[in-house]
Amino acid sequence: MDNISDLIKRAREAQAKAYAPYSNFRVGAVLVTKDGTTFLGSNVENSSYGLTVCAERIAVFKAVTSGEKEFAYLVISSSGMGYPYPCGACLQVLAEFSPELKIILVDEADNIKKYWLKELLPKAFLFNQ
Ligand code: THU
User: What distance separates the 2 farthest-apart alpha carbons in the chain?
Assistant: First the structure.
């Protein structure tokens, strides 16, 4: 894995690219594949609020559409509110590809908390298990 401070820096860069004029809550995600390739995601909001897509899903979809489906780490930062726990929809999408994913949350002061995806979503809906 890249140095955690490098990954936090990249998450902050993704966070700065969020399009969040409605909530003003900016999220950055760095998804790291098992072979060390990184994909960045930021939340993208819409005037039709329900069309908003979370940073985590943007990162997963970028990775999958680039041919990568095996992930080791996801680092998430945000513009406030303590640790940015990923929403249930994003956890479900992540579980599709990497049930063994490690998720690293970064608060405003760059403190981190680490979880396995399974701790945050113990019973994902998955075919073939
Ligand atoms: N958001 C994310 O990007 N990731 C999450 O896991 C939760 C929420 C975004 C969506 C929306 O743009 C803003 O945060 C407020 O919900």
Answer: 41
